[in-house]
Amino acid sequence: MTGKTHASCGLLVGAMTIEYFQTDLFTSITIITLAVISSLLPDICHTQSKIGRRFKILSLLVRTLFGHRTFTHSLLFISLIIILLYFIQTPDYYLVSIIFGLLSHVILDMLTPRGVKLLYPIPLTIKFPLVFRTGGLVDLSLAGALTTGAIYVLFQSFFNNLFLNL
Ligand SMILES: [Zn+2]
Question: How far is the CA of 61 from the centre of ligand 1 (A)?
Answer without folding.
Answer: 16
